[in-house]
Design goal:
Number of domains: 1
Structural class: alpha+beta
Distance between the termini: 33 Å
Largest sheet: 4 strands, antiparallel
Strand content: 25-35%
CATH architecture: 3-Layer(aba) Sandwich
CATH superfamily: Gcn5-related N-acetyltransferase (GNAT)
Strand order of the largest sheet: 1-2-3-4
CATH topology: Aminopeptidase
Radius of gyration: 15 Å
Number of strands: 7
């Protein structure tokens, strides 16, 4: 029987930060040091958090709520959105089994428990997943040869 646990990552969880940074590097080529520094800041800040999902004690997925995402640097008009579901990642061996959806539901619940009213995301690969989870599309646009969809979901 599979046991799923969720852990809110803390700024001093160095092994977990390194694990997540390794995943982000392998998936999106984000430098490990950049991820570790960013996650240390995010996990220490009020209103932001990173979650690690474990299956039978082994880390398999992560994601979080961030105040700032890279999209805002490329398209400053999106600064109007303050809380982002971001960097959702599931290890390749566990994809397609519903773990990403479970992680997103948990993050959404945590965002609501913090008193957040609404969260946003952008995607070019997983819009159908987010639609199934109740996210609403707000706009589509192209940037850097990617077709992105901005979505939002109420937390209250």
């Amino acid at each position: 029987m599979n046991s799923i646990e969720f852990k809110i990552v803390q700024p001093d969880d160095q092994l977990l930060l390194q694990q997540i940074a390794g995943w982000y590097f392998s998936e999106w080529q984000i430098p490990v040091d950049t991820t570790v520094k960013g996650l240390q800041s995010i996990t220490a800040a009020a209103g932001q958090f990173q979650v690690l999902m474990m299956l039978d004690g082994l880390p398999i997925a992560t994601g979080g709520i961030y105040d700032h995402v890279g999209l805002v640097d490329r398209a400053p008009r999106f600064k109007i959105y303050k809380k982002w579901l971001a960097q959702v990642y599931t290890i390749p061996a566990e994809r397609g089994k519903g773990y990403g959806a479970a992680l997103c539901r948990y993050i959404h619940e945590q965002a609501g428990s913090l008193g957040l009213k609404k969260i946003h995301l952008f995607t070019d690969t997983a819009a159908s997943l987010y639609r199934r989870l109740g996210w609403m599309e707000t706009e589509q646009f192209d940037i850097a040869n990617r077709h992105l969809i901005i979505m939002e979901k109420n937390c209250s």
